[in-house]
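Lab notebook, bench 4. Still working through the backlog of constructs that have no structural model yet. Next entry is a single chain of 150 residues. Request: give me the structure tokens for it.
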Amino acid sequence: MADLFTNRWLWASVLAMLLAQVFKVLLILLVSRRWEPARMLETGGMPSSHSAFVVALTTGVGLTQGLGSPLFAVCAVFSMIVMHDATGVRRSSGLQARLINELVDELRTVVRENFAPKPLRVLLGHTYLEVAAGFIIGLLAGWIAFRWIA
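Model written out:
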């Protein structure tokens, strides 16, 4: 159990994810002048915490195991899949949810009799810029955790 608490790869990744989520709330405050701390618990938006999470892990493994190690290759492939999925399937799901919500709103004006389905979540995936920002946060968090700390 003690190994879990001293696992720098895990904690560098968790730190990167938390930083991305904090940046998300701060960006909303800066741009929209709205304080939305609940966004810390949501997926989607700028920056991608999923990207930050996996890239910090990959960076830590690359710095400690070497860029030629099989473990680095596994982490790099895993990171690429996560980031591709965030901009592909999950992004498409979010766009489809937005369209379905719009259709439901239009249908509600026509039907009007107890037609109130729960709206679908729209912030599911990420743009390339959001993933790139998460990538940078993950890279910096991993670099700091394995080059400046310890």
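Notes after review: The chain is about 70% helix and 0% strand. The mean pLDDT is 86. Flag for follow-up if needed.
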